[in-house]
């Protein structure tokens, strides 16, 4: 008894000693970290060409929300690399990329960072949309009346600014969205996504690191956070309806990207597919579905299409089969990279770090990008792909190195910690006239949008990297805002990137740069907690795009045109969408092999 008691007090004493030791140790650690960081900043300040007062990310109001990005483990926010989700083209993931990201030494574990308070907003499931509202009879007749009544409304409802814009949002069972957020620790194998899904999916606020960013509107946004950001924007959409028969489109707030994310590595197909199957079963049983066979339904998956487009039942093949389900083929899936050979997905921009809450924040940013002096002709942030046969990244890195002072390289493989901070990458893009955007593990890169945001003219090497992807958001006349250097020419050593870029006249460069800056509002997602006044952001444009697409699908159904499900026809989808024809084109060879099996 006594012994036990003594042991207990002994334990208490030991516990106290441990406690104080821990406090002292963390004090020493934080002081040294602070000094280290600070000296780095001072050193950096001398070099920096930005004369901006926002050196440190301290804010008087909410200091815990304002992290300088140097405080974060941002390895997965990669703008240079197509992230952890690299597709090994034979259907199996490459392990190389993974090790780049998981082997970062000396990076703090963000598991211990506090979750910002706004996080709670995320898990309140959205209260919009009543339970199974009254629906018109799901048959041909109701289709006709729906269209008729909308044309009749032309006169009577002229004053309704939402006419033909209404969106109905399903009240999905919580396992399709809010539960995924409650379980956010499971989303990523490498990082604590709970942290990056705070602030309605925008992530923790970024301070004005070394003057790279403006004071407001910057967040350490994960490139896969769009499921949540989009849903939260939708809750603010000005034309929501609770009456599905008034809706121009029906939104399915399933977090398809976050849902599959934990199962992409090392799980069998039944684990990867289970939510997708459950979802389509739920949808197909809804009266809202039957009205248009789901052709007016859409969802957002903030991942590349290949993560959701497995065509076989073999475990070794990549991704889930969501996109290949027959219900999904009738829907519109918004993804950050679509398939050139399929018709049911449409690409929308990757999220960037900028999420303004007022029009003025955007104008201020655009003006600032106009005034910047460009120190480098071109730049590249990324890692080589030594294991990827045919990758041109090595050529690009070599050419950049050979160009000495005209090209700035941010190499992401050599302990590339520099690459892992939004401010480093954004600063480099801001100081460059052109930003090289070669394909990586897939055609597209987040980096493209970060470079546009920085007023840097993107240089593409494959039309699949943007032109045939973001048709709603980027101008079809791609030469107005970008340069295309076919990858073959680089691979064969036929093109010298530097001289090609130097051959563009100063006048042309000026016009292109202005066009890029003009595009900024179209490629950013505004803060879901506020509403921009005159500016249409990437979300607004995406919703308009969906509504137009649905209108066309409904028209086709009413005209009883056979539903175009011809696989050969679909294989030419990229050409049809971009050129409006499927005639022979000089780009054909770019799309002759499916990326999953080639490259
Ligand atoms: C992809 O996976 C296959 C099968 O495991 C393997 O043989 C191949 O070397 C991998 N390719 C790359 C580029 O890693
Ligand atoms: C829903 O909208 C349709 C078509 O505009 C209308 O006929 C119907 O009465 C509305 N239902 C409800 C419950 O408001
Ligand atoms: C798939 O994996 C899960 C758990 O990882 C297991 O319970 C299930 O039986 C597996 N299914 C098949 C068909 O192998
Ligand atoms: C998809 O649409 C077609 C044509 O409208 C229809 O025949 C088919 O039943 C729909 N599929 C599902 C699963 O609803």
Describe the structure.
The protein has three domains: 88 residues, no CATH class; 229 residues, no CATH class; 153 residues, Rossmann fold (3-Layer(aba) Sandwich). The protein has 599 residues and is α/β, with parallel strands linked by helices. Helix 11 links the parallel strand 6 and strand 7. It is built from 21 helices and 13 strands. The C terminus is likely disordered. It binds 2-acetamido-2-deoxy-beta-D-glucopyranose (4 copies). The site of one 2-acetamido-2-deoxy-beta-D-glucopyranose (NAG) has 6 residues, from loops. Its main location: Golgi. GO terms for molecular function: glycosyltransferase activity. Keywords: Glycosyltransferase, Golgi apparatus, Membrane, Signal-anchor, Transferase, Transmembrane, Transmembrane helix.
- Cofactors and ligands present? 2-acetamido-2-deoxy-beta-D-glucopyranose
Radius of gyration: 25 Å
Mean pLDDT: 79
Distance between the termini: 73 Å
- The DSSP helix count reads 21
* Secondary structure tally: strands: 13
Low-confidence segments, given as residue ranges, are 35-138, 595-599
- In terms of structural class, how would the helical and strand content be classed? alpha/beta
How many structural domains does the protein architecture include? 3
Largest sheet: 6 strands, parallel
The percent range for helix content is: 25-40%
**Approximate shape:** globular
Strand order of the largest sheet: 4-2-5-6-7-8
- Proportion of strand residues: 5-15%
Short description:
This protein has 599 residues and is of the alpha/beta class.
Layout of helices and strands, plus pairs?
Elements: H1 2-47, E1 66-67, H2 96-102, H3 119-123, H4 140-156, E2 167-169, H5 178-182, H6 193-196, E3 205-206, H7 226-235, E4 240-241, E5 249-251, H8 256-260, H9 269-284, H10 287-292, E6 297-304, H11 326-330, E7 332-337, E8 345-347, H12 359-371, E9 376-382, H13 393-402, E10 407-411, H14 422-430, E11 432-437, H15 447-453, E12 457-460, E13 483-484, H16 487-491, H17 497-502, H18 506-519, H19 538-558, H20 567-571, H21 573-579
Parallel strand pairs: 1-3, 2-4, 2-5, 5-6, 6-7, 7-8, 9-10, 9-11, 11-12, 12-13
The structure holds 2-acetamido-2-deoxy-beta-D-glucopyranose (4 copies).
One 2-acetamido-2-deoxy-beta-D-glucopyranose (NAG) is lined by residues 284, 293-294, 326-327, 330, 557, 563.
